[in-house]
Write a structure and sequence with these properties.
about 180 residues
Length: about 180
């Protein structure tokens, strides 16, 4: 699944921020579907080593949910429509080292992914049957994982981030951030 989203963040204090996500999700060029989410981040540790370097720690919680629709052909040549309702909860514990223009971090994740899928047969069913609909539920087997990431400040207010997760969810993400 591919997700494109805009995150709007609001810093309540220097160590606490809340945010909301709005966007779309799609797979294999299917029709994009609406995605929404909320989250919060608490910076629990900040140690200045000198004027340019620091160590930090943070806890972050994310909730993201949406729908996904696509049509596909099975191996026997039948055409199916798949409608999926999904939700994802991620908790992150992050520890990092930073300089003025960059930050390198790693940590642990705990994630819960839940998906309910209805599959409907679109092609002509066999003669005695009028319609096939199958319902599937998918839950994540391994909830724990790790993460590593890199932030680079192109300008003082513009940052580029790349992050990889493994274990509970194997994925690579990237985002741009501009602070107003």
């Amino acid at each position: 699944m591919h997700i494109d989203a805009i995150r709007l963040r609001f810093g309540i204090t220097d160590f606490l921020e809340i945010y909301g996500d709005l966007g779309t999700a799609y797979r294999n060029f299917a029709t994009p579907q609406f995605v929404y989410g909320v989250g919060a981040r608490i910076n629990v540790l900040s140690i200045e080593l000198d004027g340019h370097r620091s160590i930090y720690g943070a806890i972050q919680g994310d909730f993201l949910a949406g729908k996904l629709e696509e049509e596909y052909d099975s191996d026997d040549g039948r055409r199916w429509k798949k409608e999926t309702d999904w939700q994802n909860i991620d908790l992150k514990l992050e520890l990092g080292f930073g300089h003025e223009a960059w930050r390198l971090y790693g940590g642990a994740t705990y994630g819960i992914y839940d998906e309910t899928t209805d599959r409907t047969l679109l092609s002509t069913p066999p003669a005695p049957l009028t319609r096939f609909v199958y319902a599937d539920e998918l839950e994540q087997e391994n909830a724990f994982g790790g993460l590593a990431g890199f932030d680079y400040y192109v300008f003082p207010r513009f940052m580029v981030n790349f992050e990889g997760q493994f274990g509970s969810q194997n994925r690579i993400t990237g985002h741009f951030q501009y602070d107003f």
